[in-house]
Amino acid sequence: MDKNKSSQLRLLAHYLAATKNEVAIDKSVYSLCSCEPSDLGYAPRPAKLISIAGSNLRSIRLIINLAAFMWRVGLDKCWFLLDFLRLMIVKDRFDDRYSNLPSNLPIGLSFSPRALGVLESAGVLNGMGALIKCPGSEALDLDSKVLAFNFSALLTWQDCIQALRLSFIISSRMRKKALFDVWRLQSYTAFKWIAFYLAIEKMSSHKFVITDHYDRWAVLMDRLVAERSKKESSLTIVQHGSLVGLASTSMESSFSVEIPTRLCNVAKLYVYNEGSAEVFRHYILSHRATEHSLEVEFFKPKISLSPVSSDFSVLIVGHAICENFHLYLYDQVVSNSTVDFFYKPHPTVSPSKEIKSRGWHMIEQADFFPEVDLLISYPSTLVAEYEGRGIGAVLHPLAIKPEEYCEVLSRINNKLQAVK
Rounded to an integer, what is the distance from CA 49 to the centroid of its chain? Predict the structure, then answer.
């Protein structure tokens, strides 16, 4: 087998392994929403779609089924070509100096605007040799003295064409895999994933630091590290969010997603507590990874708060999955209250029109956190971060059921009555 063919097969195997985790995550979300994947045509990112669709799932399913059919007959290639053109428009000039950075300093990777704050909170940012702005955080502004550059600076235009060609091949191969037949739309990530893989593959061996736990980007970095000498390259994960079962009303660590592709090459964890470390050991990392000396360091997530009100104020932490409860809460409490209520949507899932139309103070900026007196939240990272500032929370399950509304409402009313 020639080298190019072998490289293609290896990349296909890596991408399929990463996509299996994405499918597992989406299956978990469908389950939490009491919705079968077939109800939405096995669409990726169901939380966002359910937020858009509301109760009109039938129309959305018809659109998704049509898109899935068109995907099979060529829409995938149009999508990848569009991603290719977007990258070529915003791409930074190729600079081979970035591929030869000193290997004695760790390299951080930011896949979301929140990643920067997480790395700062764990105290690892200032010791880094560089921070790479990855897909999803290319527009990130960095005030730190750490060298920061866009991943596209590692790509030549020939690399971009290669990523486009490989995305065509991989999407075609995925259609022939029984596991991905109904989940074929998951390949929408192929071009960006491959382009990023080709970029980071050029870098010399490093100690890479990420804030992703088990998604496609975490699998990508784990596989890249595996192809290099363990003495020269390693992977560190910094916990970026709460690791709890999403039906939980507690911040105690648990887990609800069955991860098919576990990480094998993680050398160090930065986690909130021993419970989080145990979740990584038992559910995310492979037995091979845990058998070797896994270094664990604890840290408390930090947050910068901005004053917003001189009166008693409450922050509702939003998510598409529990929007119906928040609308109920607005009708029962917020609309008739003199308390200032702020609503902060999830940073990756836009709120519905119904949520936006209500009379609370909507927080649009992802990096803005109001200084309030109380949180109403599912078990999210913000609960731990606000708790570190002495601000308590009333917790409810992310996938809260209608029969649970009254009990949570009672706890909220008790808190509000206590301050009157």
Answer: 16
Q: Are residues 130 and 95 in the same domain?
A: yes
Domain count, the chain: 2
> 412's torsion region: left (phi>0), alpha (psi -120 to 50) or beta?
alpha
Q: Give the CATH number, domain containing residue 313.
A: 3.40.50
257 and 122 within one domain: yes
224 and 281 within one domain: yes
Cα distances (Å, whole numbers) of residue 36 to 6, 31, 33, 39, 276: 38, 7, 9, 5, 29
Q: For 91-215, where are the alpha helices, taking DSSP H only?
A: 113-121, 157-175, 190-200
List the pLDDT tens digit at each of the 420 positions of the chain: 566 777 888 899 999 999 999 999 999 888 877 788 988 889 998 887 877 766 677 888 899 999 999 999 999 999 999 999 999 999 999 998 898 888 888 999 999 878 888 888 888 887 888 899 999 877 777 766 788 899 999 999 999 999 999 999 999 988 888 888 899 999 999 999 999 999 999 987 788 999 999 999 999 999 999 887 656 788 999 998 877 654 444 445 557 788 999 999 999 999 988 888 999 999 999 987 777 789 999 988 888 899 987 788 999 999 888 888 999 999 998 888 888 999 999 877 778 888 999 999 999 887 789 999 999 999 888 888 888 888 989 999 888 888 999 999 999 999 888 765
Are 320 and 32 in contact by the 8 Å Cβ rule? The answer is no
Q: How many CB atoms lie within 10 A of CB 74?
A: 9
Name the residue among 254, 258, 248 with its Cα closest to residue 400. 248
Q: What is the C-alpha separation between 410 and 372, in angstroms, rounded?
A: 20
- Does one domain contain both 240 and 362? no
Of 266, 298, 330, which residue sits at a domain end? 298
